[in-house]
Amino acid sequence: MTCLRLAAAIASILLAAVCIFVAEPAAQDSKKIEYDEFCKLDVKSKDGFFAVASPENRAELIRTQLQRWLAKNRARLTTAQVMVIEENIAFIKADLYVLPRREEDMAKAKALEQRTLALMSREDMTEAFTIFGSCIPKD
Questions:
Q1: What is the four-CA torsion angle of 88, 89, 93, 98, rounded to 10 degrees?
Q2: What is the 3-state secondary structure of 46-58?
Q3: Burial level of 96, CB count in 10 A (0-12/13-18/19+)?
C-alpha cells in the first residue's frame, strides 16, 4: 500500500469529516455487506463497494475493524491507547458519511485524530485504521 493510499485510508477513519469516500444518493439503496464478506474482496472491489455503501454500512465496517483490532491487541496496549481506540469506535457513526458534514463533527474528528496519532505507532495505525489492509477474523 502506498504512503498516499495509507494516509487516505487512515484519514477516512480518523477524519470522517474529510473522508475520501463521498456518500452518493444511490448508496441508500445499495446492498449491505458484512465485514467478513467485505474482507474477501480485493482492494479494488473494496474501494468500489465502499464508495457506494450506505453511511450505516460504512460506519459498521469501520467500527468492526477497530473493535476486532482492539480485541486482538488489547493485552499489549496501554490504558490510554485502549481509551483512544474506544473513543474512535464510539465516534464512528453513519451521519459522519452524509454530506454536508457538520462543522462540529469535523472539529471533533480533528481533535480525536490528534490524540490518536500521539498515542499510536505507525504500524498499529496501519493495521487498526485501514479497512483495505489486513482483516481480522472473528474470534
A1: 50
A2: HHHHHHHCCHHHH
A3: buried
For residue 113 the three cell numbers come to 485524530
- The amino acid sitting at 132 is F
User: Which residues of the chain carry a pLDDT beneath 50?
Assistant: 1, 3-9, 12, 15-28
What's the confidence (pLDDT) of residue 72?
96
> Which CA distances in Å does 124 have to 14, 74, 81, 107, 127?
13, 12, 10, 24, 5
Amino acid identity for residue 86 in this structure: E
CA distance 122 to 136: 18
**pTM for the full predicted model:** 0.79
Cβ–Cβ under 8 Å, residues 58 and 49: no
Distance (Å, rounded) from C-alpha 111 to C-alpha 107? 6
* String of DSSP letters for 72-133: HHGGGS-HHHHHHHHHHHHH--GGGGSSSPPHHHHHHHHHHHHHHHHHS-HHHHHHHS-TTS
Distance of CA 128 to the CA centre of its chain: 8
Place of cell 463521498: 22
